[in-house]
Amino acid sequence: KRRAQKKRARVAKAYGRVALPSVALGGGKNKKKGDDAAGDGARDGAAVGGPLGAGNPRLNEIFEGEVSLKDAGRRALQWVIAPHKLEKFMAETCENQPLLVRRAASQPGYFDGLLSKTGIDGLLRDGKLRHNRDFSLTQYRDGVRKTIMADTEAVAKASRVWDLFDGPEKCSIRLLRPHNHSPAIWKIVAAFEAFWGTGGGANAYLTPKGSQGFAPHYDDIDAFIIQLEGKKAWKVYNHYTPSKGARKNGSDANAAEEMDEDEGAKDDDEQEED
């Protein structure tokens, strides 16, 4: 408890110190791969995608005024689940049933300013990502999940990563801790931690069309999945009660195959950027 209290105090103190000048991974509709010059993001406030919430006033509204971190978390949650009401979500949906919010067609750009494929390319080209420390390349084929280039922690070469992404391997890119590079994601994670009173985190996934990066699996956490770019077919099942010895992370193909059609959780990937 003391460690958790100290962590929350550090987060709150850091949040108070960090201004809102930039977002490290901002997406632009007319940008090409490599256009962004990625910086260290939340660690030094480097501007890569323009000001926080550039072109997206909703991001700025979350942190406007003399708002506490917990209240910012409340605003952020309402933003994520809108138009659903927060009170009803907490009373009826949270930890009880999944919630699907469709808004891509009616509200394009709703989540602009969080992350983009262009921004990930910028991080790769600027040497900011190391294999299996900052990101990994994953592949799921014929019931087998593999990590490509699993034996290295070298700085990634952008050309090699995109060859494995676009080529016959069709590897998925899993970006670990995107909040290290994006002040927008960092602040939302910190605000969520304050609102829920527990630790939080984020991962980001980019999968080529017609491919899948991970085995069918379920997570033992509460998760908000935000589709930012591209298209993806999702298949969501009812709650899954694992048998003894079942692997929860989906790396055990046999455990995944034991799931009944109405249980567990399964992803069918086309192209994603969460």
Structural description of this entry:
The protein is 29% helix and 12% strand. The protein has 274 residues and is of the alpha+beta class. α1 packs across α7 and α3 packs across α7. The strands form two sheets. A five-stranded antiparallel β-sheet has the order 2-1-3-4-7, with helices on one face. The protein has a two-stranded antiparallel ribbon with strand order 5-6. The protein has eight helices and seven strands; from the N terminus they run αααααββαβαββαββ. Residues 14-54 and 249-274 have low confidence and may be disordered. It has helices spanning 2-17, 57-62, 69-81, 86-93, 117-125, 158-166, 183-196, 253-257; strands at residues 135-141, 144-148, 172-176, 203-207, 233-236, 265-268, 272-273. The two termini are 32 Å apart.
Shape: globular
Order of helices and strands: HHHHHEEHEHEEHEE
Helix content: 25-40%
Number of strands: 7
Assembly state (oligomeric): single chain
Largest beta-sheet characterization: 5 strands, antiparallel
Low-pLDDT ranges: 14-54, 249-274
What structural class do helix, strand and pairing data support? alpha+beta
Biggest sheet: strands side by side, in what order?
Answer: 2-1-3-4-7
What is the count of helical runs? 8
